[in-house]
Amino acid sequence: MEDIKLLTQLPKIEKPINENQTIEQEKQEISKFQKSAEIFGKSLLELESEFIDFKVEKLKSKIDYLLEDNFSEIGLKEKILAARKNGFSSITVMPTRLSNASKLAKDKKIGLNALIAYPHGEDFTRVKVLSAKLCAKTEISSVLTPIIPVMLNYYRIKNTERELVKIKRAVGKKQLKAIVNANDFSQSALTALVKLLVQTKINTVVVKIESDDLINVKTLFNLCAGKIKIEAMGDINLKTGISLLNLGCQKLSARFAEKLCDELITKLKA
Questions:
Q1: 173 or 60: which carries more pLDDT confidence?
Q2: Selecting from 1.10.10.10, 3.30.565.10, 3.20.20.70, 3.40.50.720, what CATH number does the domain 61-269 have?
Q3: pTM of the model as a whole
Q4: pLDDT in tens, 100-130
Q5: DSSP states of 218-263 as a string?
Q6: HSE of 213 in the Cβ direction (CA atoms, 13 Å)?
Q7: N- to C-terminal Cα distance for the chain?
């Protein structure tokens, strides 16, 4: 994730590149950067501008536009057009909008994901399974479903495991992702959850972000390291978004995705 960590570390001539460098080291770094500009036949500002554009496009490719509201057909079309214009990787919609979104997303060549039992995951298992089957019939990449906080109770954990197995079977070849609000779980419950997801072969967790408090989220990242990929969703601002990407987050599913990109561009060009 070194490229993501550079998002806020663009080289500037007018101030130190690295606070720990000596003046001589700093001059050497600036000289290297200037030589690179000369090789490409471009000014330093042009090269830096291209570097910023590259970083912006890199972030956009990791953004999913979260459309969790039941938009009208016109409103949905506008959002999908905005996602395409901004270069976002995909959109995520509610099942009630899947039919319209499927055609629009295909026409605009943008990925499509579906939410079931959202936002709390409290639907009956048979309802979740039916929703998953309906989603699987459309051209989507993945189905996302929330996990109710797992209590440290053998029967509750086994029931959750059985439910996930049924939903996974219902989505067929589509990918099933588990939505988790890390702040609803104790550390021991998170450990039990990760073990459960590994057993049911769920290879992606989508962390629901509701605040800037990432303590439990960091714990989840550590528990999932090397076992399960992690994405994030919710009202993600720039600061939280970059923190999540630096932790190793694969994708940001953001409600205000356009605002997130605008904030990034503003920060990079400041």
A1: 173
A2: 3.20.20.70
A3: 0.80
A4: 899 888 887 899 999 999 988 889 999 999 9
A5: HHHHHHHTTT-EEEEEES--HHHHHHHHHHT---EEETTHHHHHHH
A6: 7
A7: 23
